[in-house]
């Protein structure tokens, strides 16, 4: 991103995002949560082959999902449920991070660059609107000690503008859902129509697990 002055073309973004999703899907299929997905932990070869790195916070998970610490994922890429103290998270925690990375590749800067946990939640709420139990039923189970600041939803287009087409927005919004159970799994995201025009060579190099 720095080499390209933070302006990546749509074909390059698709190529990188597809490979990122393939790596995440591979981990999730083997019951591994990365828990620290961010641009600094993604490595590229000169021919744009993407690899996941830094599994220092990775953990195996099973069913039922056991309690984890909520002090995971670099702040800017941390899911709102984790910020609010959810300790029984699973694969959706990585999908939120992927969505933040996706948006960052599009706009050339972090989507939610919070300075602390409260500021991070406020930035998310200002863009996506303060969540309610209607759109996120399990939110009522979280033991978050503070009253939530109330903001109407501006929507992703407020931050991203016309840099994504309708299908791109759809995919991004399916990743950045408040309700973890509604976030699109990595394997399903790889089959999203937004990737229809991705060259077959790239798809074959990063096959769906």
UniProtKB/TrEMBL annotation:
<dbReference type="InterPro" id="IPR050108">
    <property type="entry name" value="CDK"/>
</dbReference>
<dbReference type="Pfam" id="PF00069">
    <property type="entry name" value="Pkinase"/>
</dbReference>
<keyword id="KW-0418">Kinase</keyword>
<dbReference type="InterPro" id="IPR011009">
    <property type="entry name" value="Kinase-like_dom_sf"/>
</dbReference>
<dbReference type="InterPro" id="IPR008271">
    <property type="entry name" value="Ser/Thr_kinase_AS"/>
</dbReference>
<keyword id="KW-0547">Nucleotide-binding</keyword>
<protein>
    <submittedName>
        <fullName>Cyclin-dependent kinase 2 like protein</fullName>
        <ecNumber>2.7.11.23</ecNumber>
    </submittedName>
</protein>
<keyword id="KW-0723">Serine/threonine-protein kinase</keyword>
<keyword id="KW-0067">ATP-binding</keyword>
<feature type="domain" description="Protein kinase">
    <location>
        <begin position="1"/>
        <end position="195"/>
    </location>
</feature>
<keyword id="KW-0808">Transferase</keyword>
<dbReference type="GO" id="GO:0008353">
    <property type="term" value="F:RNA polymerase II CTD heptapeptide repeat kinase activity"/>
</dbReference>
<comment type="similarity">
    <text>Belongs to the protein kinase superfamily. CMGC Ser/Thr protein kinase family. CDC2/CDKX subfamily.</text>
</comment>
<dbReference type="InterPro" id="IPR000719">
    <property type="entry name" value="Prot_kinase_dom"/>
</dbReference>
């Amino acid at each position: 991103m720095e080499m390209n002055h933070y302006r990546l073309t749509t074909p390059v973004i698709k190529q990188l995002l597809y490979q990122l999703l393939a790596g995440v899907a591979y981990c999730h299929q083997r019951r591994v949560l990365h828990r620290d997905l961010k641009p600094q932990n993604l490595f590229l070869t000169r021919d744009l082959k993407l690899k996941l790195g830094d599994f220092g916070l990775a953990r195996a998970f099973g069913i039922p999902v056991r309690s984890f610490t909520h002090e995971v994922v670099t702040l800017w890429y941390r899911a709102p449920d984790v910020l609010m103290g959810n300790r029984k998270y699973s694969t959706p925690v990585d999908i939120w991070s992927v969505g933040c990375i996706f948006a960052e590749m599009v706009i050339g800067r972090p989507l939610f660059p919070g300075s602390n946990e409260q500021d991070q939640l406020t930035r998310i709420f200002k863009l996506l609107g303060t969540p309610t139990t209607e759109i996120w039923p399990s939110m009522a189970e979280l033991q978050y000690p503070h009253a939530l600041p109330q903001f109407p939803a501006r929507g992703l287009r407020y931050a991203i503008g016309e840099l994504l087409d309708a299908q791109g927005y759809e995919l991004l919004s399916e990743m950045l859902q408040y309700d973890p159970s509604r976030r699109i799994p990595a394997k399903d995201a790889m089959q999203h129509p937004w990737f229809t025009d991705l060259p077959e060579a790239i798809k074959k190099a990063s096959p769906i697990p």
